[in-house]
What we know:
Blueprint: E1 89-92, E2 99-102, E3 111-117, E4 120-128, H1 132-142, E5 144-148, H2 153-163, E6 169-173, E7 179-181, E8 184-186, E9 199-203, E10 216-218, H3 230-242, H4 248-255
Parallel strand pairs: 1-5, 1-9, 5-6, 9-10
Antiparallel strand pairs: 2-4, 3-4, 7-8
Helix pairs in contact: 1-3
Bound molecules: magnesium ion.
Magnesium ion binds next to loops.
Organism: Sander lucioperca
GO molecular function, one term: RNA polymerase II CTD heptapeptide repeat phosphatase activity
Pfam family, one: NIF
Amino acid sequence: MMQITSLFLPLSLTVSQSNSSLKKHRSRSIFSPFFCCFRNYNEYHVEPPPTNNKTPSLPPLPEENGSPPKPPAKFLLPEVSIADYGKNCVVIDLDETLVHSSFKPISNADFIVPVEIDGTVHQVYVLKRPHVDEFLQKMGELFECVLFTASLAKYADPVADLLDQWGVFRARLFRESCVFHRGNYVKDLSRLGRELSKVIIIDNSPASYIFHPENAVPVQSWFEDMTDTELLDLIPLFEGLSKEEDVYSLLQSLRNR
Ligand SMILES: [Mg+2]
């Protein structure tokens, strides 16, 4: 069971556990070699430099002469679509930010997702955080939205299919797109291929954005509280962030509050 729970994060949690127990219970069975065959969602390559200023933020490509900084071999995201041109990019976490999932059967699950593990199909019970539909639709209007989860694609991809009825997520990034750093799966925003001053990450786990804390909108971990209004309450902040050329000063004022 320990290995099975490494499908999604946090690990070994059930719906009955409180937020305060989160840190204590973050066991690291994620090291398990159980899931070894990740789907490769990273086969995006650096596009040629744009001729129309559409993606001015990509790091420079190496020059023949001289020694400019070496860009990443490839970015996690494809080129910005025309529909999203000029929008800031919001990177949205899945587990305990938008939903809570468990192998423990619950009667009020919003989705039940079958996931095959080692030849056996297990049911994953997914609860939607209150106001997630409104939040996602709004995010889709305001931003280029990317789902970025440390969970495995075989679980998170079907959940995203059910959750995102509007096609809000322009891209979905899974565990293999994270950097494993000091026992945590870190979402390295510099690998996205977007200008960092236009990137916001919303995530319940500060470890996920430890490389870029200044880009973060922290959110309380959610498990089962049906009176939670965090996503709804965050909409005005995101409306403000969507209008910023550079998100850092507004996010800094949020941290200083
Ligand atoms: Mg999370």
